[in-house]
Specification:
With 182 residues, the chain is α+β, with helices and mostly antiparallel strands. It has helices at 10-27, 49-62, 98-105, 163-180; strands at 40-45, 67-74, 80-86, 89-93, 117-130, 136-148, 154-158. Helices cover 32% and strands 32% of the residues. α2 (49-62) crosses α4 (163-180). It is elongated, with a radius of gyration of 24 Å.
């Protein structure tokens, strides 16, 4: 049996062009879809390790977040180090309205054409390190992510503009002072 090939007509070409465009749009990695490198915010406290550690945990709990990781240990040199991380905390959830919240907290919002942002979340990770002078070095990583449900149906990670970092560090400062004066 011999099959006769007909030349493609304009509508067939248009359909194929649209299908190819959609495939590229869906499977191309947009900036911000992978884990964005997080920026660190560092601060040094002239306070006991225990006071800073308790202050970090209290600051996280005051935001309404739960603790995902809570580890502190003393090294062979007698100095303490620790890591305290929150779970992903939902800052906003709603249909196509998370974008306005993202503008408040994101350094640069991921570019997804015709996006519908339905949620915004944050995760705080604190690293604490006591040094030989009795000072405590605190490093904060704030990870933001938003869920885009219309085109990609996945979370996109992006850098914080520092607003949330400053807010939680102000709380840590307040609680360190409170715990040091007890």
């Amino acid at each position: 049996m011999h099959i006769k090939k007909e030349p493609m007509r304009g509508t067939h070409r248009l359909i194929i062009a649209i299908a190819c465009s959609l495939a590229v749009a869906l499977f191309t990695a947009y900036p911000g879809t992978a884990m964005a490198p997080m920026k660190d915010t560092k601060k040094t406290y002239d306070a006991e390790f225990g006071s800073v550690y308790k202050a970090v945990k209290k600051a996280i709990s005051e935001t309404g977040c739960l603790l995902e990781k809570d580890v502190a240990k003393q090294g062979a040199d007698g100095l303490y180090k620790g890591k305290v991380a929150s779970t992903f905390c939902v800052l906003y959830s709603g249909i196509d309205s998370a974008y306005e919240e993202m503008v408040k907290y994101a350094e640069k919002i991921p570019r997804v054409r015709a996006a519908t942002w339905s949620s915004l979340r944050v995760q705080y990770t604190f690293y604490l390190q006591e040094d030989e002078d009795g000072m405590v070095e605190l490093k904060l990583q704030t990870e933001l992510s938003g869920f885009e449900e219309y085109i990609t149906s996945k979370f996109h990670f992006f850098d914080s503009n520092g607003v949330l970092d400053e807010q939680i560090l102000a709380d840590v400062d307040m609680y360190v002072e409170q715990f040091e004066n007890e």
